[in-house]
Amino acid sequence: MPPSDKIRNVGPKSAAWLRQIGIRTEEDLRRMGSVEAYRRVKLAGFKPTLNLLYSMAGAEDGCHWTALTEERKAALVLAADAIDQEMAARKTAKRQGQVYTGAGLVDKALGFHEPVDHEAPAASTSEDEG
């Protein structure tokens, strides 16, 4: 019997959202990560709740979402809050006719730092000018 493409903990509506962002299998989800998948679902215009984030994290961790530790859930809540802040900043920038170029708040919340390319020119922001 071939392996199922169904993602653990994820219902049909959420699975349709995930397909829209390119996630069809649990392996796709693991490659992208539950937080980034949640972020992309929001960027696609859908209105996911924390339940989707918990469900995807459970699938990513290979467990039912209710088995996530309190520490894992707390980290997910912080990441979701950072995504909400990023979304608000994007909307504000769009309203003002600007392009959002902020650093990844999610990466900050998760303590992720990309390597700095010292050869690339620095991007200027309105804060740099004032």
Write up this protein:
- The chain has 130 residues and is mainly α.
- The chain is 57% helix and 0% strand.
- The radius of gyration is 17 Å and the shape is globular.
Secondary structure blueprint with pairings:
Blueprint: H1 12-20, H2 26-32, H3 34-43, H4 50-61, H5 70-95, H6 105-110, H7 126-129
CATH fold type: DNA polymerase, domain 1
CATH-scheme architecture: Orthogonal Bundle
Order of helices and strands: HHHHHHH
Mean pLDDT: 80
Major sheet: none
Number of domains: 1
Which percent band covers the strand fraction? Answer: under 5%
Helix content: 55-70%
pLDDT < 50 stretches: 110-130
| Overall strand count | 0
Helices, by number, come to 7
- CATH class type: Mainly Alpha
Using the alpha-carbon principal axes, give the shape: globular
SS class? mainly alpha
Rg computed from alpha carbons, rounded to a whole number of angstroms: 17 Å
Q: By CATH's scheme, which homologous superfamily applies?
A: 5' to 3' exonuclease, C-terminal subdomain
Our measurement of the CA-to-CA distance between the termini, rounded to an integer number of angstroms, reads 64 Å
